[in-house]
Amino acid sequence: MDLKDKNIILCVSGGIAAYKAAGLASFLKKQGANVYAVMTKNALEFIKPLTFKTVTGNKVTTNMFDESDFVPHISLADLADLIIVAPATANIIAKAAHGIADDMVSTLLLSSNAKKIIVPSMNSKMYLNPITQKNIKLLKENDYFIMEPDIGLLACGYEGIGKFPDIEKIYGFLLQILSGKKSYFTGKKILITLGGTIEDIDPVRYISNRSSGKMGFNLAEEFIARGGNVTLLIGNISELLLSSFKSKYPKTKIINVRSSNDLYDKVIGFENDFDIYCMVAAVADYMPDYKADKIKNKNGIELKLSATKDILASLKKRKNALYIGFAAETENLTKNAKEKLKNKNLDFIIANIVKGEKNAIGNDNAEVVILNKYNEEEFRIDYNDKKFIAQNIIDYIEKLGKFI
Ligand code: CTP
User: Fold this and answer.
1) Is the fold of 7-178 the same as that of 189-401?
2) Ligand 1 atom, smallest distance to 313 CA
3) Is 156 an active-site residue?
4) How far apart are CA 31 and CA 3, in angstroms?
5) CATH fold of the domain at 189-401
6) Are 121 and 164 in contact (CB under 8 A)?
7) b (16+ CB within 10 A) / e for 272-297
8) Beta partners for 160?
9) Which CATH topology does 7-178 take?
10) pLDDT tens for residues 195-234?
11) The model's pTM
12) Confidence label for 152 from pLDDT (cuts 50, 70 and 90)
């Protein structure tokens, strides 16, 4: 699901993280939502309404008695698909928990039947104070959705719980609440390898492949949307895709890799650290002997290629982790993919056609067949754009998640 045409009311209360709410507003808007900011009087001390007006393109409400809109809390309350209070101070949490309605945010919370998310952000002592905790419990009992704050260095200098979570995390939480489903991937640590590897021949030349990273980025976006905590190991990919991904998800951890050996070291180095390994990368099967000096080509160049290590096959398979591979095939799609599923000891393999009109590699579209080790029937997704394919792959795996 995405946020297209959803009306989201972003309530900003007066904590230091109020400035981060502008980033959240902009992010939600980029995902297609209509965002309406409502600010408490204290929030105005930290950030100006103009910032929210600029990023959302909508009027910002700061006052219950705005003459241009006779009862703004009622019109916003009716309009909302979702209300999110981010950051939520101990004060607004206390007011919401006890039905106090003395400003625009608290009145809106009391008067709307929309789903409501609270993103607490404050000093750890205030957050852990039994009074705040009791108020949070009360809100939960009254159908509010509460996001756990992050742990870290807080603006007040304390180290502890109370930090405003990353925008990607809030987005994942929000999507789950809107869709009404808790995803299997929520909170899971997911490693995705993507792009092609580069095998250097000499200081000037290299061998690589046509992989663009499109499928990997689409899968990453989909895992993030379901609350996954994604790390990317990126090989040779389209720079344009990378910069657009980075601008959308600035907090997602990205590690660059070059050769298949480099990717091998990094993936194996992470063999105990992730819940899900998703190997989309197009790994070179052969590498040349690297020559430190440029090879002179007077008489043509002869390359001796040796086999690279099979990363997925070598990766230790932990009982509670999930291993997903991709297969690039020009013929015998299902038969070859089945062998790879078995030989590499995977949970799932997604077989792509990489030939003719439907060639997936480097292109925007793909046609895939998903095989699994659970003896469930294979699942085919007809030729479509990679965003659609990624959503359907993850939906399918999520459905079979019960086997893990
Ligand atoms: N893979 C890997 N290490 C390699 C080659 C591939 O980990 N040295 C992974 C890919 O990331 C992919 C899966 O194995 O998830 C299948 O890759 P593919 O290129 O389709 O198959 P290969 O194992 O290389 O076999 P072949 O080239 O003979 O089809």
Assistant:
1) yes
2) 7
3) yes
4) 6
5) Rossmann fold (3.40.50)
6) yes
7) eebbbbbbbbbbbeebbeeeeeeeee
8) 152
9) Rossmann fold (3.40.50)
10) 999 999 999 999 999 999 999 999 999 999 888 999 999 9
11) 0.76
12) confident
